[in-house]
Amino acid sequence: MTIDANTSGGAAWTRAAIAAGAAYLAALVLVLPRDLSGKTDAAVAGELLVPALMGFVAGGFLGSAARERWREAASLLAPPVVASLGIALLLGPDLVEQREDRQEASRTYARSHVVDRPTVLGWRKTESAALERQREVIDEKLLDREPGSTAVVTSYQDGLRTVVVQAINTSDSTGLREELEQSPKQALTNFLGGAGVMDPDAFPASVPGIELLCAELPGAGAICGWADLTTIGTASWQLSDAELDEVADLTDRLLDEMRVVDALPE
Predict the structure, then answer these.
(1) What whole-number distance in Å separates Cα of residue 162 and Cα of residue 237?
(2) DSSP characters for 2-58?
(3) Chain segment 245-262, per-residue pLDDT in tens
(4) Cα–Cα distance between 47 and 91 in angstroms, integer?
(5) pLDDT tens digits, residue range 31-61?
(6) CA distance 159 to 34
(7) Which of 54, 136, 199, 201 has its CA 20 to 30 A from that of 6?
């Protein structure tokens, strides 16, 4: 089909294309940050293209067929209306599932924040240039990607045993906070995966409302990560002859001292 933009019908199709394109871009901005059902951004963008095209076709046909006085309005209004209805039908189940996941998470997990302590587990706090550099890097990343969030980066030592704690206290309406409110376990799994930790083991936690995952590291070490609705972090341990369940227990006790619970699960 060839469209002549100089004709009244061609102008209607042109307006419909502009309106449909604007509706598609708006949908991308509103929907992509929601991380629907773990779908990739490319997959969601492809799905959104279908209702946008439906809106374009509707706007073009209605604009061409309408009386002269209504052509402009029909070709401009039909694309976003039809696209919105299509998006609601297409992604509605995902939105409902996401809301239900959030409600379930609020019944299971707590809200908290992590604070720096001079000692934990009777171990003394230590400082180093490498640790200070870690703080700077994390702070830079947080300022860019998670405005308002704060980081706690510290280490503790007991003889030859050391632990490095990295925690993020998330702020409202940030991407990481939304991931945690959707599924702390999935957010923690992704967080550890980004650090190269795959297939961690889950352990029960005595502290209220958190997810606790641990894995062995090359050499005499292990890492445990935790997450709830507002906080996520890791404890990297350098120990000798310690089983993973013992490391999980140490992390559990460490969190009992460093984590301040703001709200228990509902």
Answers:
(1) 6
(2) ---TTSHHHHHHHHHHHHHHHHHHHHHHHHGGG-GGG--HHHHHHHHHHHHHHHHHH
(3) 999 999 999 999 999 988
(4) 9
(5) 766 555 556 667 777 777 787 888 788 777 7
(6) 46
(7) 54
